[in-house]
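Tokens for chain A. Residues wanted.
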């Protein structure tokens, strides 16, 4: 369920012979979710569980709470302590997955909206535009917001 990478300090100080921007982006996103102790903050942990639940097709508050081994109320309370909600985390994960699909596949937008659990294309387009500042079709065409 969990993966971890531990690096010796000397390795971290070693210069990299060739850069890899894709790997940099992946590691940078992961490191943003770590607190000073090296643990994921709760919101990031919830996002990872949401992503896993999406793969199983049941991404609901009760299911995610069960997967975390906690009550729905505790999940909501802990997210609230970080200024977040379950809906915030669900929308963040949906937007990230949508971005990847839009960049890497030609899946029709209607199919993508259903895959992500939206009721229809309009709901998906509205949510995606709110999160990214551009429509899904504009994102796909390369008009990504900065």
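Reply:
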């Amino acid at each position: 369920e969990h993966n971890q990478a531990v690096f010796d300090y000397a390795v971290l100080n070693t210069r990299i012979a060739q850069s890899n921007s894709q790997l940099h982006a992946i590691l940078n996103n992961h490191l943003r979710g770590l607190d000073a102790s090296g643990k994921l903050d709760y919101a990031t942990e919830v996002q990872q569980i949401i992503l896993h639940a999406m793969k199983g097709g049941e991404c609901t508050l009760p299911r995610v709470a069960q997967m975390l081994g906690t009550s729905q109320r505790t999940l909501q309370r802990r997210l609230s302590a970080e200024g977040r909600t379950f809906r915030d985390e669900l929308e963040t994960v949906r937007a990230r997955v949508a971005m990847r699909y839009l960049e890497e596949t030609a899946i029709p937008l209607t199919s993508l909206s259903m895959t992500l659990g939206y009721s229809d294309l309009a709901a998906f387009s509205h949510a995606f535009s709110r999160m990214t500042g551009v429509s899904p079709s504009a994102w796909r065409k390369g008009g990504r917001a900065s």
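The first helix runs from residue 9 to 12. Residues 42-140 form a domain with the Arc Repressor Mutant, subunit A fold (CATH 1.10.10.60).
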